[in-house]
Amino acid sequence: MAFEQYYYPKKAYFCSYIKLLDSLVDTNEDVDLLVKEGIIVNRLGSSEAVAKMINKLAVGVVHSTLLYGEIGMDLDQHYKNSWNRRMATLKHVYFNDLWRGTATVAAFIVVILTLMQTVLAILEKGALSK
Q1: What is the pTM of this model?
Q2: Which side of the chain, N or C, has fewer Cβ within a 10 Å radius?
Q3: Which residues cross the membrane (predicted)?
Q4: Cα 71 from Cα 69, distance rounded (Å)
Q5: Is 64:12 a contact under the CB 8 Å cutoff?
């Protein structure tokens, strides 16, 4: 990384990539997610070891140019969007697998039908009393 920054300060692709990766990985769960999605390969065995290694890679290196800064900003913007977070929570909690998703949809339909039945009963009672 020092070689790249010294000889190619405006095109420090590897250093920028390490900086982006460092901003993505803070905990063991971050490593597990990146391994699960196929972004990184864990050959150290422990997710904690990978997280520590990634977090220590950029120590002492000056980052003059962030070539992947736009990707980082897009990721941050995507995360800050409350709609995206709500949809991720909905998917993670209620649609984690086929059975849980089916049960969620069935419960939603039951609630809607019960609500419709209540409204129709109230309207019918109001029409009969007139």
Answers
A1: 0.58
A2: C
A3: 103-123
A4: 5
A5: yes
